[in-house]
Structures are given as structure tokens and as C-alpha cells.
Amino acid sequence: MAQANITEFKIFGVLQHSHVAGVRITTRHFRGGRELPLLITDPNYDFNFQDLRKLPEEIAVHPVFT
């Protein structure tokens, strides 16, 4: 499989999704096997309200090639 020459992309928002049984949700970020700070967490997740949530700052994501 060919890989693009991308060195970084930015996350500016998160659209969390769970099915009806979901009541809280957390989106985590890992790089090189190490957990980075949480992207976003919603302790009161509501299936009926799914929307793009803008992050306070853009997060840089870097590829890890194996």
C-alpha cells in the first residue's frame, strides 16, 4: 500500500458517536504507544445530541510509520 507524504494533520473538532446505550464518552489520542492528553470527554453524552464540537486549540497528529 502506498503512503502519502503527509507529515502532520490538524484536528480542530470532534464528532463523538455512540449508540443509544452510551451515557459518557471520551476521545483519546495516542502517539508511539504513549497516551497524550485527552482530546475531549463528555460525561453526560446524549445520543439525541450529536454535533461537531470544536476544540479550544488545534491538535497536531503525526504519522507513525512501522
Automatic annotation (TrEMBL):
**Gene Ontology MF term list:** dopamine beta-monooxygenase activity
Question: What InterPro entries has UniProt attached to this entry?
Answer: Cu2_ascorb_mOase-like_C, Cu2_monoox_C, DBH-like, PHM/PNGase_F_dom_sf
The record ties this protein, via Pfam families, to: Cu2_monoox_C
SUPFAM superfamilies membership:
PHM/PNGase F
State the UniProt keywords alphabetically. Answer: Disulfide bond
Q: Name one GO biological process term.
A: dopamine catabolic process
GO cellular component term, pick one: secretory granule membrane
Record-annotated Copper type II ascorbate-dependent monooxygenase C-terminal domain positions: 8-62
> Which PANTHER family did the record assign?
DOPAMINE BETA HYDROXYLASE RELATED, MOXD1 HOMOLOG 1
**Name this protein carries in UniProt:** Copper type II ascorbate-dependent monooxygenase C-terminal domain-containing protein
The protein's organism comes out as Dreissena polymorpha
What's the source species' lineage? Eukaryota, Metazoa, Spiralia, Lophotrochozoa, Mollusca
